Amino acid sequence: MPGFSWRPSRGAVRLTFVVAWVALAPVAGAETHRLKPTVGYPTFAAREPVLTVAPGDVLESETLWGAWYENPGGKWPGEVGPIRIEGAQPGDTLVVEILKVKPNRDTAVSTQGGTFGALVPDSGTAFLNDMFPRARYVWRLDREAMTGTVDLPGSAAKAVTIPLRPMIGRVAVAPEGAEAFGGLWPGRFGGNMDAADVREGTTVYLPVFHEGALFYFGDVHAAQGDGEVCGSGLETSAEVAFRFGVVRRTIAWPRLEDAEHLMVAGSARPLSDALRIAFVELVGWLVDEHGFSRPDAYQLVSQVGVVRVANVVDPLYTAVAKFPKRYLPPPQTP
Amino acid sequence: MPGFSWRPSRGAVRLTFVVAWVALAPVAGAETHRLKPTVGYPTFAAREPVLTVAPGDVLESETLWGAWYENPGGKWPGEVGPIRIEGAQPGDTLVVEILKVKPNRDTAVSTQGGTFGALVPDSGTAFLNDMFPRARYVWRLDREAMTGTVDLPGSAAKAVTIPLRPMIGRVAVAPEGAEAFGGLWPGRFGGNMDAADVREGTTVYLPVFHEGALFYFGDVHAAQGDGEVCGSGLETSAEVAFRFGVVRRTIAWPRLEDAEHLMVAGSARPLSDALRIAFVELVGWLVDEHGFSRPDAYQLVSQVGVVRVANVVDPLYTAVAKFPKRYLPPPQTP
Amino acid sequence: MPGFSWRPSRGAVRLTFVVAWVALAPVAGAETHRLKPTVGYPTFAAREPVLTVAPGDVLESETLWGAWYENPGGKWPGEVGPIRIEGAQPGDTLVVEILKVKPNRDTAVSTQGGTFGALVPDSGTAFLNDMFPRARYVWRLDREAMTGTVDLPGSAAKAVTIPLRPMIGRVAVAPEGAEAFGGLWPGRFGGNMDAADVREGTTVYLPVFHEGALFYFGDVHAAQGDGEVCGSGLETSAEVAFRFGVVRRTIAWPRLEDAEHLMVAGSARPLSDALRIAFVELVGWLVDEHGFSRPDAYQLVSQVGVVRVANVVDPLYTAVAKFPKRYLPPPQTP
Amino acid sequence: MPGFSWRPSRGAVRLTFVVAWVALAPVAGAETHRLKPTVGYPTFAAREPVLTVAPGDVLESETLWGAWYENPGGKWPGEVGPIRIEGAQPGDTLVVEILKVKPNRDTAVSTQGGTFGALVPDSGTAFLNDMFPRARYVWRLDREAMTGTVDLPGSAAKAVTIPLRPMIGRVAVAPEGAEAFGGLWPGRFGGNMDAADVREGTTVYLPVFHEGALFYFGDVHAAQGDGEVCGSGLETSAEVAFRFGVVRRTIAWPRLEDAEHLMVAGSARPLSDALRIAFVELVGWLVDEHGFSRPDAYQLVSQVGVVRVANVVDPLYTAVAKFPKRYLPPPQTP
User: Fold this and answer.
1) Interface pTM (ipTM) of the complex?
2) pTM of the model
3) Main-chain phi, psi angles of D11, to 5 degrees
């Protein structure tokens, strides 16, 4: 990618108010890498990278498709990665600009019932009641019109068509230490947050726990309601593209940024605790980077904060707390 | 209000698909009542009505202002009511169209810290840590521009101005039986849901537990962030107007409807449980009134459902689950 | 009751280490009152007392029996009270020594399933699953042998006999302000804590919110497992006797004391929060009354504390945190 | 260990009522292995075994001691293992009889405060309040008298001595699939349950997910209060001995058995969910193995069930639900 002059993402610039985020020196000639994934991993964990990129580089790839999408009981294909980002050190923050999320199939699948989902007892919410029936819906995707259609023959609405809003369910770094979390887990490392805000145009910030960060991605949803309450969105695969950066600052939980909002994604059970994590980190962000006193940040976030319930079905639930960037003070010259 | 021809609210019409909601016979000449409240009550409870209205009647009034708004430690003025709606019987549903919510003061107050609020230990979430400092912010309201401004002298943003979005924190009927819940409680009876969707243009449906329903209202917020995390919005008073109706159907939890959404407000701790209540009721609504099978309703609500976290600070937290009305099947002729 | 010389309960004496609890002057001739209750109330609330007693007086009475115990769907008889204790003022602590809990029926009833109980979705834990079947077990009580027997014809164990351990499900004062909580609620005012430690030989301390304290009692269980998970114990009625006292100290949550333990009963949902309340109050008790530093109390309670899960079925769950009195320092002479 | 005639543990015998648990054929000459551990692992995960034993064999070993016990901020030594049990296959149940837990040091350490523990905000329960101070208590162990003593110079009780009740905080198999949970995690695989009932004389049943089961152990507490609320018990090391067995039955969560009780250890946040898991599994155990109908088991467990709150501090909380074995029907001859 000749002529590319790397610059930290706007998010990273934005994060410079109190203490400057020192971006790694940009690689002279940033590259665009094309990865055709052939193997998926069932866990987020530190393992040999499939590819090494430099800060400023772009990765074009796709998410995995596999038996899970084809038939009931089929095996999940796992996530793509890990991608090693040169120079990323434990304590740094990985910056991932999501440049593209474009579904590349004509169908999407959503399963429900059994022992997974918010409205049925799951592995963490045991009850004596009989199981709610399992079902599997195949949605037809119109990638021109960007709509999805499902047949509901047993309902008065015989079929329903909804707009697509593609998102990536899982973006992660390798978790701290020797831990390896299965693909269903979200956490401080990102993972299966199932946050609709992880979409084209969003920048994701993830804490770095291992040399090279070791980035994973997968589980695209063509659309998903808040909370993903039945346990799955319109699960499909997609063309994706990311640009990577690294900043020398430490964050405790994943952060997101788009044109409108600063966001933090907290993951915990119950949902109240996920939401508290997200807001406490968001207040900390405003205090550390944008010159708010702690009480003022608490007050302001209470009046203009927005909450997106990302998922209430995974081993940990995820809540995203958002602060509208229009209320940030203008950046100051150092 | 001569010439007024009462019709059930659009919501009530909407609710007629499977089993017709039988609205009470409209009173021939619906009236507009003007109430100037002089006393507020500290609990939602069955007590002597301050006014009786007929279905179809409009009530113009205002919410109470009192010492709480004027100085720290001041007494809360309580809620206005109860309003008796003629002919409402236990098992019915009260329909309240919110015709107006217009702030009538030049200031709004928000308090935080101490032992109330989502991000500090409260009466239900005890910890050993020292208390977070109490603070009290007075916002200046510009009722022409519909903005609120707060000084933040200790922060880089010296002041912030935000748009107003007036809402009513508390709309309630008298709770079932002889119970009397303090003004901070939400529940099946409505109450202190602190739901931003309870605003001009919304229709609220509340279960009726006592003859006459016994409607209460109060606690207007000129604006409020999702979750009301510091424990209070821009607390002020307002001119309000409601039109009342009654339908002969039974609901378990408060429902809301506006031009875009069917909504259910569930209240419980922790938030996960409030959200489950809201979604289970929403699924039931789609099944009972709109011809969806139970599995289909679960699937669809999972893909297009929207969640608003109303409050995570009151004795019970409130989550609002929303279904976009554009996905409802067309009403059928009976 | 001639010759009776009133003394504060041992508990009250015990509570004098740091700041002396000033008991009300004992009434010269303490009396024994015999109350034959004829009416039960469905709520814990401030209302006209049925009896006034003086500190030091003993009350002999019985709990109510009614249709609920006789047939499915029968009405709950409500609780006995309120008893006014002379001189008790808001901010004081009511001391209730439980002198007797002696079942007075030959049967006890336990119901389960439907929408009440810990292992089925209830009004706070909604799920889409079909309801778990309701059932009603009638236990035969042998009041000589102090055992209860139930037939289980569908099980390999055709019948089971268990020892009785009578306890009082509900002891309460009128809650703060104008609130009126239904008989199923526990809280700061005591109420339906369903704590097995509320039994003969235990002293209960309750915060006083109204002149006269306004004490209620009812809902005897001949036996109950931890958590009362199906939603009911061996529900029956009993002869009961209490001796009342008042101390001029303020407590935030109900406390219990028996020969072995200081205890605090915290009530909240989820159970983690109830348990935190109980432990934070217990630490406070050790600090305020027994000369422990806050960190030392935290450490010690962590190593010798005992938890009893009282109920996980009521509108709030109740956890009892216990501190063995053998680890208290010896009382000091002032 | 010549002459040893292996028999399934009493627990395994007990579990034979409805469908016989088929124990692996006992190895002719069961052996006693002595392992001197030199390395500890930071995660529960499938890795190369350090030792292979046969069903019926006894393992004598010790838990690891390391820098964590010696000084603040010291590194945790990790857990011993994995031990491979010959013939254990995924879907089986590993039987571990705990033959010995005997502290082998003269001190034990308990830390508190900071961001770990039930009564301070931790990584899952974020609040804005200032941190509660960290502290570190060193207890002196008298291994003859079996007591522990701690100095509390800032408290009226200048020192406290308590009886020791040694237990093993962590017993685990390798978790399902490729997951690797850090040593603080409990779960279906056992792990850091911090259950006081995991002590000498108890038999632990763990689900087998990998060939050989891959058993780990560590983290002995000389004593611990219910819930381990400050985040640590009297942490020390011990001589331990286990006898292993394997049965061809599948369990979902760890089970325990001692002379008095059948027990299930459920792990989840919040605590209510952990408790539900434990009780639902306990009901299932009674139904599957002891001839109770599901409703009868629910009823009986509600009246005689005992709950031990194991921990409310780890990434998942652990509750142990216990059923007194005296209420089991007599074993039937097949």
Assistant:
1) 0.93
2) 0.94
3) -60, -45
